[in-house]
Amino acid sequence: MSELNAEDAKIITLARSARARTGAAEGAAVRDETGRTYSATSVDLPSLKLSALKAAVAMAVSSGAEDLEAAAVVTAADAPDPSDVQAVRDLGPKAPVLVAAPNGTLRTTLT
């Protein structure tokens, strides 16, 4: 696998940091068309459950983003749920989704 560019490495780092800070199951970050980044963790409340990717996409949308350049998720799972990837695709149809292990190692890129 090729070396990550600096911007993609940054969103993996943001996702890892968010996950570590809260002790959540997943951390995610997205980069919008202007280069702004949004990071989030999975939410598991009695009345609200969101994956980290969906929460990050929601943050981007609510901040006015019109497109995504890339997304990253840090998870112990082998892959994100297909509905999480679809949330990214809804806003950024061409955005790669970087899937990283908890230690930050890139596992795969979904295009």
Topology:
Blueprint: H1 6-22, E1 26-32, E2 37-41, E3 43-44, E4 49-50, H2 52-62, E5 68-75, H3 82-91, E6 97-100, E7 106-110
Parallel strand pairs: 5-6
Antiparallel strand pairs: 1-2, 1-5, 3-4, 6-7
Helix pairs in contact: 2-3
Largest sheet: 5 strands, mixed
Strand order, sheet with most strands: 2-1-5-6-7
Structural class: alpha+beta
The residue fraction in helices comes out at: 25-40%
**Topology, number of strands:** 7
Strand and helix order: HEEEEHEHEE
Low-confidence stretches: none
DSSP strand content: 25-35%
Outline type: globular
The radius of gyration computed from the alpha-carbon positions, rounded to a whole number of angstroms, is: 12 Å
Spatial separation of the terminal alpha carbons? 14 Å
> Counting H and I runs of at least 4 residues, what is the number of helices?
3
- Quote the average pLDDT: 96
